[in-house]
Amino acid sequence: MSDPSQSLIHSDAEDEKAGSYGTYSVVVVYCGVGLLLVATYVWGVVTLFEKHGDAMQLWGHIGDPGNEWLLKTYYASILAATIGFFPSLCYALTIAPRLPKSTVNLICGSLLGFYVTELFWMPMCVAYIEKPSATIYWAIRLQLAASGSFGLLWAWAKIFAVPARIAEEVSPCLRVSGLLGTLAFALHCAIMDATIWPPFFR
User: Fold this and answer.
1) 125-131 long-range contacts, Cβ below 8 Å, gap at least 24?
2) Which tens digit of pLDDT belongs to each residue from 20-71?
3) How far is it, in rounded angstroms, from Cα 128 to Cα 75?
4) Are 105 and 22 in contact (CB under 8 A)?
5) How far apart are alpha carbons 155 and 149 in whole angstroms?
6) Global pTM value
């Protein structure tokens, strides 16, 4: 004979599932807003190429002789973050429909916060390259600090806020690659972009 209280708990858990809301939220934030951010990067690089013939100014002094090791480290970190984004996206799409809406909102909201603050990075960099000023420089630093913090919150939510029973329903390969990809992306933004890069850009 089934326990009514257990049935009620199970029913409540079912009601919590995000379902299609979770899937749509991931697609809109991860892909939709993400493409807007990529568009700002493309715009910035094209603008710098048109005005200066290349976009190396974005590297600041990281591209100076003697810093080759740091530039190569940066390239490797960017590559890891870029590749890692895709299993992170696939993992999010897999778990989102099964998650509570509150967890979907935490994951997608923190990534949205990262994207929205990061939208200002390239325009400010182009403005600074054209006319350096302390105001723009510190605005960039504040923006990167905010973006890095949102990125870390996003990674924390993906790793610790997802119920274990839901995470365990995902294949180990996708789960591990998705979480490692999330870490690679978030740590690159928080360490390489928000901490190491700014002093070299000044």
Assistant:
1) 125/44, 125/58, 125/201, 126/44, 126/47, 126/48, 128/201, 129/48, 129/52, 129/57, 129/58, 130/51
2) 999 999 999 999 999 999 999 999 999 999 998 888 899 999 988 888 899 9
3) 23
4) no
5) 10
6) 0.90
